[in-house]
Amino acid sequence: MSAVRDITLLGRDAPLWLAAAALRRALAPAGVTVRAVALPDENGVADLYATLPAIEALHNQVGIDEAALLRGVRGAFTLGQNFVDVSGAGEAPFLHSYGAFGTGINGGDFFPHWVKARRHGLGVGLDDFSLTATAAHNGRLFIPDEDSEIYGRSDYGYHLPAAAYAKSLKAIAQHLGVVVFETASVAVERSDDGIAALLLDDGSRVESALFADLTREGLLREGLLRETTDGAFEAWAMPGDRMLTALAPRFAALPVYAEIRAGTDGWTGLFPSLTQTHVVHVFSSAATSDEAALQAAATVSGLALEATTIRALAPGVASVPWAGNVIGLGEAACSFDPIHGLGLHGLQLGIVHLLGVYPAEGDSYAARRAEYNRIMRSHFARVADFQVAHHTLQKYAGPFWDVARALPVSDELANMIDFFRARGELAPQEDESLPPDSWRVLFTGHGIVPESWRPAVDRVPPDEVTIHFRKMLGFVREQVLRQPTHDAYLARILQRPHG
Amino acid sequence: MTAHGPYRIVILGGGTAGWMCASGLAGLLAAADYDITLIESDEIATVGVGEATLPHIKTFNDMIGIDEAEFMRETAGTIKLGIEFVDWLRPGVRYIHPFGTFGDRWTNADFQHHWARARLAGTDSRSLQDYSFAVAAALANGFEHPNTDPKSIRSTYSYAYHFDAGLYAAYLRKWATARGIRRMEGKVVDVVRDAESGDVASLTLASGAEVSGDLFIDCSGFRSLLLGQTMEVPWVDWSDWLPCDRAFAVPCTGVEPLTPYTRATAQRAGWTWRIPLQHRIGNGYVFSSRFCGEEEARQTLLGAIDGEALDEPRLLRFQAGRRQVGWAGNCIAVGLASGFLEPLESTSIFLIQAATIDLAGLIPRRGEKVDPRMVREFNRLFSVHYDRTRDFLVLHYTANERIGEPMWDHVRNMTLPDSLTHKMALFRESAAAPEYRLGLFSRDSWLSVLEGQGVLPSAANPLTHRLSAADLQARLDDLAERIAVNAVDMTPHAEFLASYCASEAKAMPGVPANAA
User: How many CB atoms lie within 10 A of CB B240?
Assistant: First the structure.
């Protein structure tokens, strides 16, 4: 092994082009050649990426302009995901919003004060203390400014129609100098410690020191390592194994969040883009036929569905994300349950950490590979814990949710849930990529009412806390009223001249 | 809720751990909800050699509202900008572990990657040390409070203190008792346990007095009377990795200049510390009895001190390690009762502080009982604090070139914790340095010791190439120059102390030891 001045990415659709563009942009000054071997696109018109706010940082690194992107792909903003029970269990809905709750009191965190106040009968929920959540409930976007940043973080993600996003990213990747190959299928030429070259349909041979596998099925891992322990893919027992996607007409007033409706046999997600509503329905093939799923998706969404496709899901994680000279990125390394829209989040984690240890120099990269594997496994485990928390804490009715409730819980997660229930605090973890308020809203949204709170909170007289709370509620109301509706803001972006 | 009386906390043992814990709880909890008693005996000597601290103590002091100037005046305190390691790599080589950062993060790559790149290209021959303002200030024997403008090079350091541990405990005693902590004089002769739960119910004093409580904090030192002896929590032994098990300690008269840093000098079978206070210098020799006899150690220490010995060297015996858990039943150990790591990186007081702050967040509220879910979280954090500190200490020993000296040969060749082996290999291979959220020691701390112990990178992160070689060198030159220029006119440390917090403490009028 020696300095790695070239890397070849195998994949398709947006993940391939996003990774290629990001690696090229970051590594070109160091003289690294980035090749992309593109398999035929799989994305249909109904496919859409829901992103977390963090994607903005990656877009900025690549040089993607937000307004131009949303114009180009006819995307939309999202302030979070609204989880709604339509299973008949009578669970209250909750919004996993992308902003912070409340602002500090006398240098201490807001949340424990809220926990205490709730125990003493406060009738105001967390969302009223959040700029983002309150804006979402009022059909408005929240665009942060200096005052709001002092109060607390207010972020947004995007809904990006997948095919258009891929097209836009591909153009950027090519513009940045990514060398592009296209092929219908690929064969692997082995070397002693991994892959020597990819063999394409047209007979060309793409040699490279390093390869990155971005295929959802982990083609290179499968081709290279099938019989070795390094090649293992640890399947996660998530409740859904099939996913239906479809298109439906857009809502008259564009919602500013996604809605995840829990039915008895699965869940149905409604993701607004500029011109359409993208519908996802996840179910279990053991309990539900494709026909029944289609019926359920139509019923639960209440929308006329078209462009319907159904595909299999295989959530899980590669035992060794980077084996030999093949690096798993995105779904080749880890495939999340689609319920939280974390597909690009997993990819972004991989890109960021690969850049942190990319071996453009040096005689060996064994330690860097070990570090990538350590850090990715740890990050993926935290995200999976978040998803398992959602599944095991929900109280929806129906066989799908009964299975979900029985999922195995890691020791770390069990401790986190116990500790939150006991004291309303989050046990701090390494390699946590989701913000604390996401965990708080997940736990409280599923009905955990902490039994106690951090004792330091008792030093602040309740009357003083009440005054702070009133100020916060007033500030949030006032700020939100000044915000544009989603439609108005998007119209403003669309009006700007192209280019 | 008001039906319950205040929650009763009994702290066993004064000294640094007991009084820090008492002060921390007094500062962090609502006074009306807790009834805190500290039992100590004037007959029991405290160990009290932990006279050097880490910058975290300032956070602790600020959190509970201790006035810095008053605290330094009353404890004969001095400033500590870092620790100088002398002869650790090999005789004649020295470096400082500074309390501050090395350079800036440029182009999304941490500073050491830029440093490594320029160094490997042969365009820059400076040490990382040259990119630390704290190092420059320490070597200039200067100190001023850091600038709060983050753009200023004078904002890139923090600081800790050296102080007289005996005076510190006395200062905190006064501080805590003024805030409602009850002090009881007495020796514990019996521990009464609840027959059913096994929890400690009360402590019986020599006077016959019975002190009952809801929660007992064991600050009894090495004896670990409650957690170790009563609750029988097993000991996790780390002496394979940290073979030093004895220390001689002796104070000596002060010398000029008054250095704003601790010094740790490697010796044949361990290392000697030097901690300058306002009124004297604290010294000690931490050594391994496997490799050095006591008399030899005593002579080594007396030969290594700068001033006149003020007392007979005092011997301490210990073992590196920790209790399996820090909280069992209704007993929590804080300080030496929970574990011991040699004072190489001044971690003892930090570990007391961490346990106190963790406990203040996890302790039952008035009317609540000990909750196993809180205990589990406390113990998780407890082991993280100890284990991460251990790896950092072991690095100082294992990466050495003191070939032919049996103890140093042993630590160089021993099998390391996997977590440490990986950290060292990763830095050598790529200049990537350890970074974690929980537990002690930042990336900058690791960098100083890695470089200082001769663990050097052979490659840098490619993101550094987003700067041209010429731009990079210009930035490096500018940074080094700003550091050097600004360090020159720092107020001398001694002058700073005289105007800010001059102490009235006098060196102990002890009998000078028989110097060798």
Answer: 12
Contacts of B462 in chain A (CB under 8 A): 26-27, 29-30, 32, 358, 360-361
Segment A261-278 shows an average pLDDT of: 97
> Tokens 């299999």 correspond to what residue?
A312
- Bond before A484 cis per omega within 30 degrees: no
Query: Chain B contact for A473, CB < 8 A?
Result: no
Listed by number, the residues of chain B in 389-448 with a beta carbon closer than 8 Å to a beta carbon of chain A are 422, 425-426, 428-430, 432, 436-438
Q: For residue A13, which of A233, A163, A171, A221 has the smallest C-alpha distance?
A: A163
| pLDDT tens digits along B315-371 | 999 999 999 999 999 999 999 999 999 999 999 999 999 999 999 999 999 999 999
Residues A22-38: what's their mean pLDDT?
A: 97
Residue B508 pLDDT grade (very low, low, confident, very high; cuts 50, 70, 90): low
Structure tokens, B12: 């066993």
**Pairwise CB contact (< 8 Å): B465 & A363:** no
| Segment holding A7, helix H or strand E | strand A6-11
| Closest residue on chain A to B1 (Cα) | A120
Say which of B80, B151, B369, B506 is annotated catalytic.
B80
pLDDT, average across residues A272-287? 97
Burial of A302 (0-12, 13-18, 19+ CB in 10 A): exposed
SS3 content of chain A, % helix, strand, coil (to 5): 40, 20, 35
Instruction: Compute the average pLDDT of residues A242-270.
Output: 97
Nearest 5°: the CA angle B380, B385, B391 is 120
Q: What does pTM read for this prediction?
A: 0.96
B306 min Cα distance to partner chain A (Å): 44
Backbone phi and psi for residue B472, each to the nearest 5 degrees, phi listed first? -60, -50
Answer yes or no: do A456 and B361 touch at CB < 8 A. yes
Pairing between β-strand B7-12 and β-strand B270-276 as defined by DSSP bridges: unpaired
Q: Phi and psi (nearest 5°) for A168?
A: -65, -45
**CB of B9 within 8 Å of any CB in chain A?**
no
CB count, 10 Å around CB of A481? 11
* B365 neighbourhood in chain A, CB within 8 Å: 452-453, 455, 458
Q: What is the DSSP letter of B466?
A: G
Contact call for residues A296 and A266 (beta carbons, < 8 A): yes
pLDDT tens-digit readout, B23-49:
999 999 999 999 999 999 988 776 655
